[in-house]
Amino acid sequence: MNNSPISKINLDGRDFYVKRDDLIDPFLAGNKYRKLYTLLQTPPNNLNKIISYGGTQSNAMLAMASMCKTKGWEFIYYTKPISKTQKELQSGNYYHAKRFGMWHVEIEYELYKDFIASLRVNIEDKAFLVDQGGADTSAKEGLEVLASEIRAENLDVKSLATPSGTGTTALYLALAMPEYKVYTTSAIGDVEYLKEQMSALETIPDNLVILEPSKKYHFAKLYPEFLEIYKKLLKAGVEFDLLYAPGMWKTLLEQTDEEILYIHSGGVSGNESMLSRYMQKGFV
Ligand SMILES: *Cc1c(COP(=O)(O)O)cnc(C)c1O
Fold first, then answer.
1. Residues 7 and 233 sit within 8 Å (Cβ to Cβ)
2. Which of 41, 213, 259, 277 is most buried by its number of CB atoms within 10 A?
C-alpha cells in the first residue's frame, strides 16, 4: 500500500488539509483500515475465523467482511434481531458484507449482553475476536503507521482532527503523535462516555482535545445542518460520511481557527442508505 494522499480544501474561507484515508479501498478504508492493520498483516494461515458483533450498518462490519474474504477467513457477526426489510435491502453495508460471505447471527435482546460476554471465554485457537467497532488495543500499530505517514509529509501544521465513535482512532493517534494537538468530537455519547471508552484502552494523553458540539446530536439521526455541511464539503472537493464527519467539521469551524489536517475516517459506503433516508424526509 502506498501512503494515502493529502488534499487541500477551502471551507468558509479557511484552508484545511485532508489525509485521504477514504481512498485506500472501497470497502476497507478510513480508520477501519488503520484499526485492522495488524490483522491485515497477519498471514492467512495463522487464523481461520474472525468473530465480532455490533450494528448491522456498521462500517467496521463491512471492513472486516472485506478483509475476511481476501484472507479466506470465516467471518461470524452477531447482532440483535433485525427487521426483514433490512435483510432484504439491496444496498448498504449489510448487503455488501453478506456478499463478502459474512455469516450473520441474530441474538435475542434478553440474551445479547451475556452472549457477547461469553464469546471471549470460549474463543478457539485460530479464531480472533474483534470488539464492537474495532475498539481493540491491537489498533495501536495501524495508528502508528498513520503517524509516520503524517510526519513524512512535513506539513506546516500542528493540529489534527478526526471524529470519534469508540474513540480508539483518536486515542491511538494522539498517543502516536505527542507533538501534535489532536481534536475529536463524540458522535455517539457525551464527552464523559467517550472518555470512559478511551480510558478502557489507555490513559488519555493531554494532547487529545475532545470538543463539545454546541448542540446535542444523537447518533444516526437526521439533521438538516449535517446534510448541509456534507454538501458544502462535497462542493469543496471531498465526500465525507454522514454520521461522524458533519459534527466534527461543524465543531472545528465553530471552535478552532488554526490550520488543521483532518484525517478522513472513511465510511462513505454508508452514505447511500443515509442519503435515501434524508430524501424520504424531504431534506434533499
Ligand atoms: C468507525 C468510524 C468512526 C469512529 O472511529 P472510532 O475509532 O471508533 O472512534 C469515525 N468515522 C467513521 C466514518 C467511522 O466509520
1. no
2. 213
CA of 119 to the centre of ligand 1 (A): 23
pLDDT at 102: 98
pLDDT at 40: 96
Report pLDDT digits (tens) over 93-141.
999 999 999 999 999 999 999 999 999 998 999 999 999 988 888 899 9
The CATH number assigned to the domain with range 34-134 reads: 3.40.50.1100
**pLDDT on residue 266:** 97
Ligand 1 atom nearest 243 alpha carbon: 13
Which residues does the chain have with pLDDT short of 50?
Answer: none
Q: How far is the CA of 267 from the centre of ligand 1 (A)?
A: 8
60-93 pLDDT, tens per residue?
999 999 999 999 999 999 999 999 998 998 888 9
User: Can you read off the three cell numbers belonging to residue 208?
Assistant: 487529545
CA dist 116 and 79 (Å) reads 9
Query: Which of 168, 134, 204, 148 is CA-nearest to residue 19?
Result: 148
163 lines ligand 1 (CB under 6 A): yes
Ligand 1 in contact with 169 (CB < 6 A)? Answer: yes
Q: Do domains 6-24+137-280 and 34-134 have the same CATH topology?
A: yes
Q: What ranges do the domains of the chain cover?
A: 6-24+137-280, 34-134
Which of 136, 137, 230, 265 for a ligand 1 pocket mutation test, highest count of atoms within 8 Å of Cβ? 265
Q: What number does the ligand 1 atom closest to the CA of 134 have?
A: 8
Virtual torsion, Cα 167, 170, 175, 181, nearest 10 deg: -130
Cell digits for 238? 471531498
Atom of ligand 1 nearest to the CA of 133: 8
CATH topology for 6-24+137-280? Rossmann fold (3.40.50)
